[in-house]
Structure formats: C-alpha cells, structure tokens
Design goal:
The complex is a heterodimer of chains A (about 240) and B (about 325).
Chain A lengths: L2 E12 L2 E12 L3 E5 L6 H8 L7 E6 L2 E2 L5 H7 L1 E3 L12 H9 L6 H14 L15 H14 L4 E5 L7 H18 L2 E5 L3 H7 L2 E6 L2 E6 L1 H4 L3 H8 L6
Parallel strand pairs in A: 3-8, 3-9, 6-7, 7-8
Antiparallel strand pairs in A: 1-2, 1-4, 4-5, 9-10
Chain B lengths: L1 H4 L5 H20 L2 H26 L8 H18 L3 H25 L4 H20 L10 E2 L17 H23 L2 H11 L1 H6 L4 H27 L1 E2 L1 H4 L2 H14 L6 H22 L7 H16 L4 H9 L7
Antiparallel strand pairs in B: 1-2
Classes of the chains: A alpha/beta (about 240), B mainly alpha (about 325).
C-alpha cells in the first residue's frame, strides 16, 4: 500500500458554483504534497471534503485503504487525519497548553500523559514559553503555530495544513518549514498542505497539485510545475517567470 | 484521590477552602434559626447553580429551563413517598432516572438536529412550560391545587425519611454541595471536562480534534439533569409542598442560573460565591429596607436588580475570577 490518501474524481457544487471539479490525486505514505492555486480555486473546499466537513457530490476519498468520504469530521480525525483551519479556530479562553492537551487526549486518556505529550509538541513548535498564555492573547503567527500543534497532538498519520505560513515572516516560515521537515523525517508523517507561500512549497513538497476554477491544471514535482505555462498564466503571474 | 481533588489549587486556596468548610460545618452551633434557613437557601442555590454550570459553564449549552429537572425530581420522590411510602433516598434513584430521561430527550432533539444557542435555550424553556402545564392537570400528584407531604412534629431526626429539623436539612444540603463541588472539580480535570470546554469554545474545532461532540454534549445534559433532580428531592422534603406554578415556573429557572452568572460561569467557585452574594444581598436588602422603615412594594426587587446590574457591569466575567486573582488561589503550573 503506497498511497495513504487517494482522491478519485471528486466534485462539489455550491448552488451555481462548481467549487471542485472532478479532481483526482494520490498522496504517497510519508510524502509531503502541496495544493496550490489562486484564491477561489477550490483548495479549501477540497480540504474540507477530505476532513469530512462536506460530503462530495461525486467521487470518493480513500484513506489508508478505507473509504472515508461519508464519515464525520471527528471520525476522520480518529482514523488519523489532523487538520488546521485557514481562519484559525483556537479555544480562546483556554491556555495555549490546554488547547494542545485537548488534542493530545485523543490518544492519551490520562490528563497527565496528555499534558506531557502536549508539552513536547509545544516545544517542537516554539510555543513552550507561551504555554500559560490564553490562546486569545497570541499573535496571528502564533495562533497558526498553535493550530499545527493542536492537530499534531492528535498524532495523525496525515496532517492537513491550510495556509499555515500565511502572515509569517521569512525567518518564521523557515522555522515552520524545518519543524515540518523534521516531523516528516523523524516520524514519517505524511503532510498535505495548501500554501500560497511558494518559498515554503518549493522547500517542502515533493509533489504539487495546481487547481484553477476547481479543476486540476497541473501536477508534478514543484520545479517542473512552476515552469508550466498554464500554471504561470493562471496563478504565479509574470513575477514568477524570472 | 486527594491529590487529584486538590490538583490545580494553590496551598493558599486549600487553606481557604478548609476554613470555609470548617465554618460551614460549625454554622448550626453558631447561627440562629433564621440564619440557618438562609444558609440552607444559599447552599441549595450553590448546588443547583453548580449542576447548571456543568451544562452551560463547562459544555456551553444554555439551558433556561432547568426548573423542569428540579420539578421532576421533586414530584417523583414525593409521589413515591406519599403514595407508596418509599423513602426519599430510594425515591432519589427514580427522581434521577426521570430527570436523566428528560434531559436525554431534550439533548437528543437539540444536538441531533443541530439546535444550538438561543434556539436551544428556547427549547429548554418550552419543555419546562410543557411540564408546568402538564403537572397543572396531573391529578395523581394534586394537579394545580398542589401536592403535600405529611408534616408532623418529629421527636428526633429521621434521616432515612428526610423528616427532621433545619439542622438536619442543613447538613444534607452541605453534603450535597460539597459532593457536587468535588465531582465538578474532578470532572474538569479529566478528559470529559477538557472536551466539554473545547465544545464550549469552538465546536467545529473540537470535532476536528476527534471529539464526538454529540456524545459529550449528551453527557453534560444528562449529568446536569440528574444532579438538578437531587436538589428537587431535597426541595420536596424540605418545603413539603409542591405547586406546578411554583416549581416549574420560568422564574425558578432564572433564579437558578443567576448565582453562577454573578459568581462566574464555568468556574468551580462561581456558583458558590454567587449563591452567597445573591442570597446575602437579598436578605440584607430586606433587613435594610425594614430598618429604614421603607415599605414601598417592589422596592427590594428594584434595589436587588440595581445591585446585580452593578456587579454584571463591573465584573462581566463574574465575581470569582476577579476574587481569585485578589486571593491568589489558582496555581498555574501543576
């Protein structure tokens, strides 16, 4: 079993808008896979279908050999898919640490064990020093990190990251990239990310899928994909050519 | 177990808790009869406030119809006692079962069909009103003319049948309040408590972390209903009379939630502090106004309302979070 995630012919329509149009791709176990495309290309909708927020109108999603497209978000998380939200959703009144403890409790019912695991995850994402602050007090980049930490604490096999680099400074982006690379190397964590920050995509992803108007326009290694005329025209624009 | 009970409370907090408990335990020897009945009301509101807090403060589900559980518990135990001579401690099981079933029905309807927020609150009010109207016509328990428990002068306290003097009722209520406090403390520190708070804070995010939100909301609804029904049994045997217009009335539900709101929603001490403040305020207002010879009808309510307004505006998070900061009783790093 090479592919951890396999999306076959998935479509989703919202009234008149065909948000995702017959999209298929496979994510190999242990790999890092990026989905890019202009705003409104259907990336987040595709993510929400994989994470169980929406059922697709057509097509199927298979994870670890089982069909998951009819499952609820919590069941999908229990199967081993962790996710972040593009518009971050921390538990604002709780401390940073408690936010992550709640994630850790999925696999560790004992609060003390969950807390120990949460602290390891927090240290990995440079949030350990801020663990006692309420989540509502964090800056946006820190909230994005908290989203990653919380999802990671559920010990997913596949991590879905929805624009976690947005708003990060270049140095912070590099820190996040190296944290994700470590997770991928050390634990074989498979990562599927939506990203606009090409610096991160080029550094992380082994394969890239490009969406435009809900449909696939290119897929392949990042260096090759960014040279494809269709991709340059629809997404990257003139500045990416030079 | 003891360590778990005191987990997260500073030494100062433990000391203050011990002093408070000692004072409450000694109260019947110090206080006169009037003060003792006031303290019974305080503890009763602290207990019911704590029960409601499980649902709203911990799990974020606003119930404005909690009087239904008080009423169901009260009527169930009272009816078993009056009609079949079943002692209240056995009737308690039936009371809890009836309230839990009712809580499960309301919870199922709301949570399965995505009724949340104010719509959930309206649903809870509707059920309490159904019960009020239904019991108004329920002849077996006296309907609208009321249901009465036999009252006589007891030579000694009969704890098994909950017949006795105020001191006995005081200790029963104190034991219930302490038990509810300890239960909530342990729950808050365990997985279920964390999951409730996650649901309260953001249900979508909670689901994405693998939390079966339906199941945990049901646990909160059922536990809160069961705990509230216990207070209902106490209510029936303490007051010895039940009228649907009284026990199921929406004003009862509102009274019940004022304590935790003033004290601090979602906090352990909130319901306790709120109960002391509100009952204390209400009684003090009474004394003050009669001492001043001020006897306009409704004056007490107006002043009471004004005081509540001041508290809510000055401390929107409730009194306890502010007081806890002043007393330095919460420990950050367990």
């Amino acid at each position: 079993m090479m592919d951890l995630l396999s999306v076959e012919g998935v479509s989703k329509r919202f009234r008149g808008l065909l948000a995702v149009d017959n999209v298929s791709f496979r994510v190999a176990r242990g790999s890092i896979f990026a989905v890019i495309g202009p705003n409104g290309a259907g990336k987040t909708t595709l993510f929400n279908i994989i994470a169980g927020m929406f059922a697709p109108d057509r097509g199927s999603v298979d994870f670890a050999g089982e069909r998951i497209d009819a499952l609820a978000p919590d069941e999908i998380c229990r199967r081993g898919i962790g996710r972040t939200f593009q518009l971050v959703r921390p538990f604002p009144a709780l401390s940073v640490e408690d936010n992550v403890v709640i994630g850790a409790m999925l696999r560790r019912h004992d609060p003390a064990a969950a807390r120990r695991h949460a602290r390891e995850v927090l240290a990995r994402l440079d949030l350990f020093g801020k663990r006692h602050q309420p989540a509502s007090a964090l800056t946006l980049p820190d909230r994005k990190r908290l989203e990653v930490a919380r999802a990671l604490a559920t010990e997913p096999k596949l991590l879905l990251l929805d624009e976690v680099m947005a708003g990060l400074r270049p140095a912070e982006t590099d820190r996040m990239v190296s944290a994700l690379t470590e997770l991928n190397r050390e634990f074989g964590l498979t990562i599927l990310l939506i990203e606009h920050v090409m610096r991160a995509v080029m550094a992380l992803a082994a394969r890239v899928l490009v969406l435009h108007h809900g449909a696939r326009i290119a897929e392949g290694a990042p260096a090759a994909v960014v040279r494809e005329p269709a991709v340059i025209q629809s997404y990257l624009g003139a500045e990416a050519v030079d | 177990m003891t360590s778990r009970l005191l987990d997260g409370i500073s030494h100062r907090g433990v000391a203050l808790l011990a002093v408070l408990l000692a004072v409450l335990l000694a109260a019947p020897w110090i206080a006169n009869d009037y003060l003792l009945t006031v303290l019974i009301i305080v503890l009763y509101s602290a207990y019911t406030g704590q029960a409601w807090n499980v649902m709203m403060g911990f799990a974020g589900q606003l119930s404005l119809g909690h009087a239904i559980y008080v009423g169901l518990g009260a009527y169930a135990a009272a009816a078993l006692y009056v009609h079949f001579g079943i002692a209240p401690w056995l009737g308690l099981a039936a009371a809890i079962a009836v309230a839990v079933a009712c809580g499960a029905i309301i919870g199922f309807l709301a949570f399965r069909f995505g009724v949340g927020g104010v719509y959930f609150a309206i649903l809870t009010i509707a059920f309490a009103e159904f019960a009020r109207i239904g019991f108004d016509h329920f002849q077996w328990v006296g309907a609208s003319s009321g249901f009465f428990l036999p009252v006589a002068n007891y030579t000694r306290n009969d704890l098994w049948n909950l017949r006795g003097d105020p001191t006995m009722f005081y200790y029963v209520m104190l034991a219930l309040t302490v038990a509810a406090f300890a239960l909530c403390h342990v729950l808050l520190k365990s997985r279920i408590g964390y999951y409730w708070q996650a649901i309260r804070e953001d249900e979508v995010a909670a689901r994405s972390l693998g939390i079966d939100t339906f199941r945990y909301k049901m646990y909160a609804a059922v536990l809160s209903a069961g705990m509230t029904a216990v207070a209902g049994v106490f209510f029936a045997f303490y007051y010895n009379n039940l009228f649907p217009e009284q026990v199921f009335h929406i004003s009862r539900s509102i009274e019940l939630i004022l304590g935790p709101i003033i004290g601090g929603i979602g906090t352990l001490f909130g319901p306790l502090i709120g109960a002391f403040l509100l009952t204390g305020l209400s009684e003090a207002m009474q004394e003050l106004l009669s001492a001043l010879g001020f006897d306009a009808p409704g004056a007490k309510q107006v002043f009471y309302g004004l005081c509540l307004l001041v508290v809510v505006m000055a401390l929107p998070g409730g009194v306890w979070p502010w007081l806890a900061g002043k007393l330095r009783v919460t420990r950050r790093d367990p």
